[in-house]
Amino acid sequence: MRISILLIALVIFVVTAGCSRLNVNTLNERLKPSNDRDWIAELNVTPFAQVSGDQVTLRNIRKNRYLTNDDYVLDHFDRTIEISQIQSVDYIVVPFNNSPQIAHTMLSFGLDDDTYLGVSVEVRREKGEGYSAWRGLTRQLELMYVLADERDLIGVRTSHRESDVYVYPTIANPEQAQALFKSVVSRMNQLAANPEFYHTITNNCTTNLQSHVNELSPDRIPYAWKVLLPAHSAQYAYDLGLLDRRIPFEDLQALALVRNESNQNLDNPRFSKLIRTKRDALERIVQRQVSNQQIQTR
Question: CA 20 to 30 Å from 290, out of 15, 99, 110, 127?
């Protein structure tokens, strides 16, 4: 079974591999990952956190404003928060336009002041280097945790990459969201001090997020083909009870799609709140279902 999964994945990787310039690492570069290469500007600054008890100072939170996919105003800021401010966590899925079985996945942590901190596990690309799933198998690409606001992470994908973005509310309570955030911060600091190579199958965006959950609850997310092909990972999370199961997954998916809301509110400081307006419909659907069930039982 594992062999067949790998074969399917490799076929997809060959089909979806980028056609950009082949900037191949030398043997010496492949022996040791680095945080010190000629990175593209948007991935040049390494985020990290200074932790003191419940207080965390987050350094180098990115808040780029994109004019096009490649033309942007580069900006970063620092922020100090209390871990207890973390109240929720959302799971974000961005299917690839040219290969809908593959997707990029992210997390976004909601704070008690209605602001959000997004975390995106990405390939750290050098100048002139494009993403290639095949090269991700051969110690050619480094791994990076990007800490950013949602107008950056979500806005560029909906408006300039013309991608669908799905923002799913998880069932995590505040204590669970806080524990997950601490796990993410620890991993982010680990990579800032000890860089690692990205690996298309074993060390990518989705497997890292899976590891954070399993660190807190062992085997909560077993490895499966829906992790390997992460466009299906939201359905998998739903089946495992990590997302709200009070309504069918198809309805939840429709409510999670934020592409239009994102594009309409790119310049609005209330961006994060406005892209979630359809969530009000979730409670209305649930209430309608309860009312219908009550009527049927009379």
Answer: 110
What does the alpha-carbon distance between residue 158 and residue 146 come to, in Å, rounded to a whole number? 18
Is 273:261 a contact under the CB 8 Å cutoff? Answer: no
- Residue 149, CB-side half-sphere exposure with 13 Å CA sphere: 23
Gap between the Cα atoms of 143 and 154, Å rounded: 20
Q: ∠ CA 90-111-92 to the nearest 5 degrees?
A: 15
Q: What is the residue-wise DSSP string for 100-123?
A: EEEEEEEEEEEETTS-EEEEEEEE
Separation in Å, CA 25 to CA 39, 126, 199: 14, 11, 15
pLDDT digits (tens, 9 = 90+) for 193-209: 999 999 999 999 999 99
For 168, the domain range is 2-297
State the alpha helices, DSSP H only, in the chain: 2-16, 27-31, 150-153, 155-159, 174-193, 205-216, 225-228, 233-239, 249-256, 259-264, 271-274, 279-297
Tokens representing 187 are 């991993």
Cα 214 to Cα 95: distance, rounded to the nearest angstrom: 24
DSSP code per residue over 51-73: EETTEEEEEEEE--EESSSS-EE
Cβ atoms of 115 and 150 closer than 8 Å: no
User: At 95, which helix (H) or strand (E)?
Assistant: strand 86-96
Whole-prediction pTM value?
Answer: 0.88
Domains in the chain: how many in total? Answer: 1
Q: Nearest to residue 86, comparing CAs of 59, 119, 120? A: 119
| pLDDT tens-digit readout, 176-191 | 999 999 999 999 999 9
Whole-angstrom distance, CA of residue 122 vs CA of residue 191: 12
| Cross-strand bridge partners of residue 89 | 109
- Residue 39, H or E segment: none
- For residues 61 and 77, is the Cβ–Cβ distance under 8 A? yes
